[in-house]
């Protein structure tokens, strides 16, 4: 069975995709960017956009029954190569060792976004 978990405070785009898709114990989260609850882009520094994007990811995961500790893979999109050192400094504040599997792609976002993240996670269960 495929589910599409969502709540009123789940960040949502006006584009045709769901914030997350849940199949069994797996959660697939669509790319989360620096947007408000209505999907409007909130521009800022790289750090501000990265933190807002990951907080949006956190909200989507919680709605789907998981959290950042249960992320098994992330895909990260960083607009500018110059932001990679800061990206690598901030990332461990949200994801702990031994860290999820990770892909990072640079020079791939348009001028309106500096950072975007998507992930695959598992449902959190008591004691996990």
Give your account of this protein's structure.
It is a single chain. By secondary structure, the chain is α+β, with helices and mostly antiparallel strands. It contains two helices and six strands; from the N terminus they run βββαβαββ. The protein has helices at residues 46-63, 84-94, and strands spanning 2-3, 20-23, 26-33, 71-78, 101-106, 115-122. A six-stranded mixed beta sheet has the order 1-2-3-6-4-5. Helix 2 links the parallel strand 4 (71-78) and strand 5 (101-106). It is globular and about 40 Å long. It starts with a strand and ends in a 6-residue tail after the last strand. The model has no long low-confidence stretch (mean pLDDT 93).
In a few lines, what is going on in this structure?
The protein has 128 residues and is of the alpha+beta class. The chain is built from two helices and six strands; from the N terminus they run βββαβαββ.
Helix-strand blueprint:
Blueprint: E1 2-3, E2 20-23, E3 26-33, H1 46-63, E4 71-78, H2 84-94, E5 101-106, E6 115-122
Question: How far is the first residue's CA from the last residue's CA?
Answer: 23 Å
Low-confidence stretches: none
Return the average pLDDT rounded to an integer: 93
Bin the helical content.
Answer: 10-25%
Helix count from the secondary structure assignment: 2
| Main sheet specs | 6 strands, mixed
Core attributes:
2 helices; 6 strands; alpha+beta; 128 residues; six-stranded mixed β-sheet
